[in-house]
Design brief:
The chain is α/β, with parallel strands linked by helices. The protein is built from ten helices and 13 strands. β8, α3 and β9 form a beta-alpha-beta unit. The structure holds guanosine-5'-triphosphate (GTP), magnesium ion and zinc ion.
Length: about 350
Amino acid sequence: MYKLSSLGWNSYYQNMFREFENSSLVPARVVVENKNNYVIFSEVGELMGELSGKLMFSSESQSDLPKVGDWVLVNYFDEHSPAIIQEVLPRQTKLSRKVTGAKTDEQIIASNIDTIFIVQALDETFNINRVQRSLVLVNNSGAKAIVVLSKSDLCNDIEDKLVKLRERVGDVQTISLSNVNKNGIDDILTLLEPGKTYSLIGPSGVGKSTLINSIFGDELLDTKAVREGDSKGRHTTTRRELVILPNGSLIIDTPGMRELQLWSDEESLNSVFPEIDELAVHCKYDDCTHSHETGCAVIKAIEEGELSKENYDNYLKMLKEVKYLETRIDEGKQYDTKNRWKAVKKEMKNFYKKNHKYKKG
Ligand SMILES: Nc1nc2c(ncn2[C@@H]2O[C@H](COP(=O)(O)OP(=O)(O)OP(=O)(O)O)[C@@H](O)[C@H]2O)c(=O)[nH]1
Ligand SMILES: [Mg+2]
Ligand SMILES: [Zn+2]
């Protein structure tokens, strides 16, 4: 048995639920997504959920289907039968990336999260470009971002790394910690609020699942040693899973992601590079790409040593990605419109054919 509020239900979802209040549907939260079904938590406890035919066939893309963290509305029969998922309530926040490969589709990593921990290890895999990339995705998600630097026990230049990080990302909240000597774990514990949802993202092997175990105080999730030599992880976590912590907070563990292709608008990108955003106002051309134009205030700042070259390079790389994404999404829309027109024309042709025959006959 769960109280909805203890599963993260709030006035936002209550509002979204209003139009279904007189139906027989009840709310439940998606905890695990399996291949053919879902584990969901509801007021009657843990249930197995299956998609209704209507939801399966009316959804236009993967992102219309339930994801871990989603609030869904189900028909509940009894504890022996699967609940049937009829609706996915609009998401308050959603963390997405572009699917890997050539396709331009959104992949939702998790939804309805309040705060996302961007985890990086303080070992040889430490990578500020990746933190910035994650920040773009998190800023686009609507959730709050906190950077977690793990494995502080393996690092003897923490201050140096912190200074470098701060130079690049400004004053984003940062916590360094160790799951081995437990330094910094309290800093995480004190900010976890009951009924709020958190998630951890970061490369494989940085200690995301170990951190949940540290907070939980037990070996709840599987963890595995990283590779010797390059400290890379072994992709131990293979599914997203929402876990309820002893203090009543909810946390979603995610598998380490090799690639984080952007699914983001330009505004979220710029929010991670406020100094570039401010300079861009002074560029000669409104559509300046800050890569070669004369009168570009960003290039000028680089030449005068006023802007971090690393930030500039990482920004340009991501700007290209975001622009490409925008055109691909536009093309996709045009393609849809074209196809729809084709279908309409075909229908009209058939209609006239039939009518013609009818008149003749
Ligand atoms: N020295 C040290 N090792 C740690 C720390 N945190 C985790 N580890 C170790 O790092 C390895 C990987 O940890 P996991 O928790 O499995 O990493 P993960 O981020 O969940 O990895 P994936 O599930 O593959 O994405 C394990 O052997 C952990 O014991 C830490 O703070 N210090
Ligand atoms: Mg893991
Ligand atoms: Zn410019």
